[in-house]
Design a protein that fits this description.
Number of strands: 4
Strand content: under 5%
Strand order of the largest sheet: 1-2
Structural class: mainly alpha
Helix content: 55-70%
Order of helices and strands: HHEEHHHHHHHHHHHHEEH
Shape: globular
Length: about 375
């Protein structure tokens, strides 16, 4: 076992001594921080005749949101909004809920029954647009019965903003892995050090395990670092309130029994699992192609395809397969094909959410890729040069 950790030590040393790896990591860390805070320092607002920075305006909005936490969206609340008109200051989060349900800006519902009936109709419309079967729609409506009605507003801006920022971190993650990981295997061939393995008494097995361990752990650690660099500044500015707020506070048309904070944790978990999948693919392809460039080109190209391409929902089977691609799962929370989208996957009598099905599929694919990589690495024949 001591030999294994020694191999891991030197694999890490080789990886971290590459200037492009350290430079890419540093640049992406800076970008992770910037995407979280740069919007707060990009100009000024004029409020009541006074010029206020975006940061100060945001802090004022956060305080207003906190003051209205606990507001019950019922008949009394809507009547008070109509009676006081423009003089009644409403938190942006509440307006977002109203807009999601009604599809109109600055429109106050007539009463709570009308509002929640409209919410139910909007949900059914989204189910139809996603081409869900009648049984799936009934299942989702049964799940939604656990949603607390009337909705009690709770500010959870820090966590919901963090989830959105993690989408960009997920893109950076692909770039970092594509730049860093292939060299773990390809350098052995390009520098012609693969012949040294012929002199060892234990063969390629321990070395492959060390390389695999190095690649997977590096990707997990790097993803965590980038995520933390994005999440911490956001929570510092927008607060940690509302981790236990129901998901419907941020996404009122979703039926899931989940909190806003749990949603962000699930996304972070899926990013870590995606890093394992990316690393597995990068290492296997680097061993097969014996090149750094080929894995990088394929990974970045496929990421761009996932961002711009879509499969129409009417082709439900293909749409479900496409929805399990990392670039689709790690997309805007609340979207139909995101990790908390409306699609259901039926496995052995159980209905799985997108993120649950993706976790199973990604884990299986990673295991298969690493097994194939071991066979290729073990059977590679060093030829004369």
């Amino acid at each position: 076992m001591d030999g294994f950790w020694m191999l891991v030590k030197y694999e890490y040393k080789k990886l971290l001594q590459r200037k492009i790896v350290c430079a890419t990591m540093l640049v992406l860390i800076v970008m992770s921080v910037l995407i979280s805070v740069i919007g707060y320092f990009s100009g000024n607002y004029v409020i009541d005749g006074k010029e206020v920075s975006v940061y100060d305006a945001h802090k004022m909005s956060v305080e207003e949101e906190r003051e209205q936490t606990g507001s019950v969206l019922d008949d009394m609340f809507f009547a008070r909004m109509r009676a006081q008109g423009d003089e009644y200051s409403i938190a942006n989060g509440i307006w977002n809920i109203l807009f999601e349900v009604e599809g109109k800006l600055d429109v106050v519902p007539e009463d709570a029954d009308t509002f929640y009936s409209m919410r139910e109709n909007q949900m059914k419309m989204k189910f139809d647009e996603a081409f869900l079967t009648s049984e799936e729609q009934k299942e989702l409506m049964c799940i939604d019965e656990a949603t607390e009605i009337p909705i009690v507003y709770e500010y959870a801006g820090g966590w919901s903003e963090s989830s959105v920022n993690l989408i960009l971190v997920a893109i950076m993650q692909v770039i970092l892995i594509a730049v860093s990981i292939p060299a773990i295997f390809s350098d052995e061939h390009s520098r012609r050090t693969d012949q040294i393995v012929l002199c060892t008494d234990r063969g390629r097995g321990p070395l492959y395990l060390a390389k695999m361990f190095t690649g997977l752990t590096y990707c997990l650690i790097a993803t965590l670092i980038l995520s933390i660099c994005s999440i911490v500044p956001t929570l510092f500015v927008s607060g940690t309130d509302g981790f236990g707020a129901p998901l419907q506070v941020a996404y009122p048309l979703l039926p899931w029994r989940m909190t806003v904070g749990e949603g962000m944790v699930v996304m972070l978990f899926m990013m870590l699992l995606a890093s394992v999948l990316y690393a597995s693919f990068a290492m296997v392809m680097a061993e097969k192609s014996r090149s750094n460039v080929a894995p990088m080109a394929v990974m970045v190209g496929f990421m761009l395809i996932c961002l711009i391409a879509n499969v129409p929902e009417k082709f439900l089977f293909l749409a479900k397969i496409w929805a399990l691609m990392p670039g689709k799962v790690l997309s805007l929370p609340g979207g139909d094909d995101s990790f908390i989208g409306l699609l259901l996957f039926h496995v052995m009598g159980e209905s799985l959410m997108t993120w649950q099905m993706a976790a199973v599929v990604w884990g299986m694919i990673s295991a298969v890729l690493l097994s194939i990589g071991y066979r290729w690495y073990k059977n590679y024949q060093v030829t004369g040069r």
